[in-house]
Design a protein that fits this description.
With 300 residues, this protein is α/β, with parallel strands linked by helices. Helices cover 42% and strands 14% of the residues. The protein contains eleven helices and eight strands. Strands 1, 2, 3, 4, 5, 6, 7 and 8 form an eight-stranded mixed sheet that branches.
């Protein structure tokens, strides 16, 4: 479908496509007017680049850098969805990135999470940090057109999703291992280049409103580089903006983003223990209503 578009068609359709996912007609109209301006200014070369890059997304386990034109539009589109926002503790993230390899572990509530984190950082005067984030993305991110467009607006790295989930395409252990190894190699290279890896260690969005167990295999990513700094992060509000099961429909709501002090992976905090510590740290940053029940296992 994407390959059949031409620059003129893309410029005409994309504003209506994106604003069409907003449930409130008045907000959708405001949003349409907002994003039409930057999209109309795309040259044929820029528009064709968008088409080509979106068509290629997710085909390999490599770092896909955000298309600059798409990134600008996504941050403008999000303006009408995040009605109010708050960022707390961003100094922890900035200090960590200035001193070495850094990874962000965050709770997962909506497909909108990565877009929201990018937009809130950029609006808060931390565009340089937003531009360095690389979101680990499961296969479903690249199969749905709406999510594929969203992925083109941020840096992403395809990762194989755990086959323990019923909605995940099943694959052989050998194929899963191959993809996981390729993904980790690409993630390590991204860290070496100064990018910050953003992982949602639950592996899937919460269906209960409370943070779920972390996937056991995430600890492997914590060993990518010596002295890796892990920033526990709590994101609240995106479940109201883009509820699970609502067919990608969105509506305005407030959101908050809280970064905690870094956990440094090393001899005093090995990978598995670091994953447990991150779970506890994120839980402590979340409101009581979003914390996992004490009876729930920490690691799935």
């Amino acid at each position: 479908m994407l390959a059949k578009l031409d620059p003129n068609t893309l410029r005409a359709l994309m504003p209506q496509f994106l604003s069409g996912f907003i449930r409130d007609p008045a907000v959708a109209a405001t949003n349409l007017a907002r994003i039409q301006v930057p999209i109309a200014a795309w040259s044929d070369e820029v528009a064709q680049g968008v088409i080509d890059e979106l068509a290629a997304l997710g085909s390999e386990e490599v770092l896909y850098k955000a298309n600059p034109a798409c990134k600008t539009v996504a941050r403008a589109w999000s303006r009408d969805l995040i009605s109010e926002h708050e960022i707390i503790g961003v100094e922890h993230l900035r200090k960590a990135t200035e001193s070495g390899p850094t990874m962000v572990l965050c709770n997962h509530s909506a497909y909108f999470d990565s877009t929201a984190i990018d937009a809130m950082l950029a609006w808060g005067g931390h565009e340089d940090l937003a531009d360095r984030l690389v979101s680990a993305a499961g296969p479903k991110v690249y199969t749905d057109l709406f999510r594929r467009v969203a992925a083109g607006c941020i840096n992403t790295l395809p990762v194989p999703q755990s086959t323990s989930f019923s909605h995940t395409t099943q694959m052989s252990p050998r194929e899963l291992a191959r993809r996981a190894i390729n993904s980790m190699k690409a993630a390590g290279a991204a860290l070496d280049d100064g990018y910050v890896l953003l992982l949602f260690p639950e592996g899937s969005r919460t269906r209960t409103g409370t943070m779920g167990p972390f996937l056991r295999g995430v600890h492997r990513y914590l060993g990518l580089r010596a002295g890796l700094q892990v920033i526990p992060t709590a994101l609240v509000g995106t479940a109201r903006i883009m509820p699970v099961g609502d067919h990608n429909k969105v509506r305005p709501a407030s959101a908050s983003l809280t970064f905690g002090p870094p956990l440094i992976v090393g001899p005093d905090l090995p990978q598995r223990e670091a994953l447990l510590a991150a779970h506890a740290a994120i839980s402590a940053l979340l409101p009581a209503a979003n914390r996992p029940p004490e009876s729930q296992p920490v690691i799935a």
